[in-house]
TrEMBL record:
Keywords: Methyltransferase, Transferase. It is an enzyme of class 2 (transferase). One of its GO terms (molecular function) is RNA binding. Its EC number is 2.1.1.-. It comes from the Bacteria. It comes from Actinomyces viscosus. This is TrmH family tRNA/rRNA methyltransferase. GO terms for biological process: methylation; RNA processing. Pfam families: SpoU_methylase (PF00588). The keyword Transferase applies.
Amino acid sequence: MIIELDDAADPRLVDYTGLTDVALRRRLETDRGLYMAESTKVITRAVAAGHAPRSFLMAERHLEQMAPVIAAASGCDERPDGGGVPVFLAPEEVLESITGFHLHRGALAAMNRPELASVPALLAAARGGAGARRIAILEDLVDHTNVGAAFRSAAALGIDAVLVTPRCADPFYRRSVRVSMGTVFQVPWTRLPRWPDLDGLHAAGFTVAALALSGDSVALDEFAASAACTEASSRVAVVLGTEGDGLSRRTIAAADEVVRIPMAGAVDSLNVAAAAAVAFWALRLP
């Protein structure tokens, strides 16, 4: 259903207004159960993952490019001008006044949030039902850019699932989604109800490796060569901590192994997103 607009204050655009107000976005994305997908590629991945759009917002010049994904979301095989999902079209200057930024990546879509799976169900469903063998846990990350970058590395380097702690930034926040290039829809994830609580992971057969600087830590390459990683049935959960302070002492104490990335050049640590990529590569399965 195509709707042409020329007024940024149109009440039908309430999902999109005030995108630069972080508090407003957080409230809307929680209360209304929505998240924002930005760019043609990201929206396409969201729809392909089975997520249902509430509406689309774009300039008319992007309609032809977006037609297949809109049609797929509307459940029809033709151009989406008769479908049930609203497609809001507006001039570029109106779009910028609505969103607070220049919409240069094609389109926005307000998407309904899918219900998150339980941790046991998520881990059991990975690898086509064979169960997850490599997972990442993001502890209390506050920067949405780092969350998105970690998901992109997880998708590229074979991580089966991502678990985020109760206070971790939202993977479906607009910037996280954009930085991940939509891979937050590709890598299964859910939010842990409590943390640190490793009983469920241990019951599922996971060795929990905390990535941290510690006097008793082992080098990442040494850990990757250990039996915990090389046995045919090995299951490893690598835990990455918040920006600045890193992992909590309770998490480090509860982990089965404390692992460090060997450094040179008098550098003691990497940005958490960079560290995630290094760890995922080192622990990848053949």
